[in-house]
């Protein structure tokens, strides 16, 4: 196989250690991975260096979409198809979900950490069903996944799946989603009927890699099968009473598509926690930041300050109250996550709580 079809580039070749073979990770199991090399697929185990790095930081664990260096095993070692995964090459992009529990050495719950869902992805499809049982599309979940997508370095695209279930409400839903996702392409998709699949395919081609993120039951695997032109991922019906999926897809997998491009199918995401936060939240709520530029005070919190342009936009109907509430929630979470890795912010929070605690103690004194 020509690895350039999988996204192999000259910059990756420059990072490849001498004496190793390049491979792209297609699937990860415990301590091993299925990879694609120029000679075809292989199953390899993780080398000692990779295991040590992952033990120190789970984000360093090889994941689907990674480019890896395979090192030959000694002749007497027949495990791993003659090679081991010796090193993960630098990631161009990475979708990292935060809030994943990391067990402590004693076996109890430890600190939360990050989990890489996919690496070296060009396009992030955010899949949200038009209806999830009795519930309409979840705009808050779309916002969270968009923040994750923007932070990854990939380009997000929102897909309203199972669009045929929306009926006459579909145009209004698409307008509402478009306001929720400023600057992002939004497509209606009914994959079983083939509707909207061509628009999705238009975002993939050549050696570009896409990933589909969304809740269980959103029709992600059905869409992947439609793009592949055959059933490469199993699918099942959602529960009729609540529209919930049943996690038919239990692992992430990289699938080369006929005609070029690759797509990564993923299990349904129940919890979407932010990890590293830069401009992701700001890009999701671009209209809030634009309005904030017109506030009287530069540090306006948009609570009750006089001359607040954001609150004025809510009163006029220009900005839905739900958007401001979502902005506040994700900003608080972003600041909390940043404080976990930023010593200065941790110090500021500690001093703030010290002042609050001292004030509370003063009030309680007789």
TrEMBL record:
Monomer. Associates with 30S ribosomal subunit, binds 16S rRNA. NCBIfam families: ribosome small subunit-dependent GTPase A (TIGR00157). It comes from Thermopolyspora flexuosa. The keyword Hydrolase applies. Its EC number is 3.6.1.-. Binds 1 zinc ion per subunit. GO terms for cellular component: cytoplasm. InterPro entries: G_CP_dom, P-loop_NTPase, Ribosome_biogen_GTPase_RsgA, RsgA_GTPase_dom. This is Small ribosomal subunit biogenesis GTPase RsgA. It comes from the Bacteria. Zn(2+) binds at residues 295, 300, 302, 308.
């Amino acid at each position: 196989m020509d690895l350039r079809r999988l996204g192999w580039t000259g910059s990756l070749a420059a990072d490849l250690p001498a004496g190793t073979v390049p491979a792209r990770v297609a699937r990860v199991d415990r301590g091993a991975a299925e990879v694609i090399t120029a000679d075809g697929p292989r199953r390899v185990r993780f080398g000692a260096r990779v295991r040590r790095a992952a033990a120190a930081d789970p984000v360093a664990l090889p994941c689907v979409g990674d480019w890896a260096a395979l090192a030959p095993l000694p002749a007497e070692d027949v495990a791993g198809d003659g090679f081991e995964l010796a090193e993960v090459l630098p990631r161009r992009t990475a979708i990292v979900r935060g809030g994943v529990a990391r067990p402590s050495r004693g076996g109890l719950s430890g600190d939360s950490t990050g989990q890489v869902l996919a690496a070296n992805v060009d396009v992030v499809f955010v899949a949200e069903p038009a209806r999830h049982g009795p519930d309409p599309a979840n705009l808050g979940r779309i916002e969270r996944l968009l923040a994750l997508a923007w932070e990854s370095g990939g380009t997000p695209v929102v897909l309203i799946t199972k669009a045929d279930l929306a009926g006459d409400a579909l145009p209004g839903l698409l307008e509402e989603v478009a306001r929720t996702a400023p600057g992002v392409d939004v497509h209606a998709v009914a994959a079983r009927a083939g509707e909207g699949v061509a628009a999705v395919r238009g975002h993939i081609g050549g050696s570009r890699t896409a990933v589909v993120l969304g809740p269980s039951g959103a029709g992600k695997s059905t869409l992947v099968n439609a793009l592949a032109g055959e059933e490469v991922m199993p699918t099942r019906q959602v529960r009729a009473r609540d529209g919930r999926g049943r996690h038919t897809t239990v692992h992430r997998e990289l699938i080369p598509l006929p005609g070029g491009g690759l797509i990564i199918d993923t299990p349904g995401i129940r919890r979407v926690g932010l990890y590293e936060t830069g401009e992701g939240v700001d890009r999701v709520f671009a209209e809030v930041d634009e309005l904030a530029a017109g506030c009287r005070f530069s540090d306006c919190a948009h609570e009750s300050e006089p001359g607040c342009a954001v609150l004025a936009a809510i009163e006029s109907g220009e900005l839905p109250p739900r958007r401001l509430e979502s902005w506040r929630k994700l900003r608080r979470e972003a600041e909390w996550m940043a404080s976990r890795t930023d010593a200065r912010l941790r110090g500021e929070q500690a001093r703030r709580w010290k002042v609050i605690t001292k004030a509370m103690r003063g009030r309680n004194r007789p």
